[in-house]
Amino acid sequence: MEKTQDKKSQTLLKSATLIVIVILLSKVAGFLRDIIVANYYGASLVSDAYFYAYQIPALAVVILGGMGGPFHSATVSVFSKIIDNFSAKPKKEVKRLFNTYETFSLLVFGLIALICFFYPDIVMKIIISQASPELSALAAYHLKLMSPVILVGALLGLYYGILVTYNKFLLPNIAPSMVSIGIIITLFITKGDNTGFYLALGTTFGALLQLLVQTPVVVKLGYTFKPVFDFFKNKKFNEILELLMPAFLSSTIGQIGIYVDIFFASSLAQGQWTAYGYANRIFQFPVGLMLSALLVPLFPLFSRLVAQNKFDEVRHYFNKGVGSLIFVGTFTMIYIFIARVDLISLALERGAFTHQATLMVSEVLFFISLSIIPYMFRDSITRLYYSFGDSKTPFYIALGSILLKLIFNSLLVGPLGINGIALSTSIITLINGTLLAILIRKKISIGYRVFFKQIGKILFCALITFILGFFLNSCMNLVLSDSFILKIVKVSIDFIFMLISYVLVAHLLRIEYLEDLKEKIETKLGIKKNA
Fold this sequence. Notes:
Helix content: over 70%
Distance between the termini: 21 Å
Radius of gyration: 23 Å
Number of helices: 20
Number of domains: 2
Structural class: mainly alpha
Shape: globular
Order of helices and strands: HHHHHHHHHHHHHHHHHHHH
Number of strands: 0
């Protein structure tokens, strides 16, 4: 078993390494997009209107159709079990299932897209009912321009899932960068405008690019589109719906949580929702990178191992994978705490994006970053539920979080403003992760005693590193000026010093995930241990 696990670990490492590189490039494209958008629109009425309107297309493209979304998850879970030869063209029944799935998705998302195109003002008035008439009208204008993105989202999650099922990790993780590239190209050519027309148009253009990039490879695998309406006759499609609908509702419930945030944020000062959006994207840069690297190759493996009743291997990969993820994520959290103002200033503070906007984003980022550990654990263990064919439990927990969102936002937004929404999100993520951790024991014993003992060591290691980093950063702020070059010097010194401190303390505490990461790096570099 150990040899098998070592072989699978090496395969996962190779996949994860490739995914990290690809997603990093995608994240860089997103980073450049944010720089350009911030330069032209800052934290303003126009940017607020765009980010409010984008929440609906984002539901289709990012949340439902993206990595870990219900369409991707349901596709991987079902198709990975019914395809017996991944090097051959799909069998007739597999293709028919694919076409039934695609037809269903196009009909549902097409209807939503039409509603958003013809009635955008009504949709936005429901979502941002407390907004000014000017903000509401501008957001409706953006939504109408981006409504085709919703139809595109009907296909992206399905195609993403099929490609991952065939272990084609490269393209699905390159494709999402097309939205960023579409925005960059459009704004680079047009130089922006005072209504956000080109920003919304670039988003639609980018989504179409993403679809065009994925489609030829899916067709080459043997999956061409032909309308099939076996919605009630196809047993495998019913199995997909059993996974898809609760997961769809769960993701939608999560989006409703965002709409609750929008309701509270729409009454706040201009630019605060934009600040929240930028902070969340900065947060997602490292966290999304790490989660994608782990979960994209690991989720199909979970599904196969569960189907084979190999629960010891499931437990092994979960503990090792998630533990290593949290070990790296915790360092990311404390580094953000220390260097966030300088990092945001270096990245965004130019053009229409002022220093006041930098401070606003940095405060929100602090409260969002508190959720890094529970966020990683929650998303990882949710995939474990899906591997067991259970999407209902995550749904019920997400449903309960809506009420908690209302309660915590009501308590925190008044005294903390937009920071209250960020803190509320972190608290609810912790609650969700805790409930999922408790209820998974009905399906499999994870071995929490050993797992959380290591997590306790990680948190102590993080505390020591944070104190040392805070002292160093305070000293540099007294000595160094705020010039662009010296800010680069400060964040670089902070990173190197804190990383060395974190690794040394982890070594002294004998945190096993440090050794796991070291072994994986040595394996990747071809370094063999001495006998």
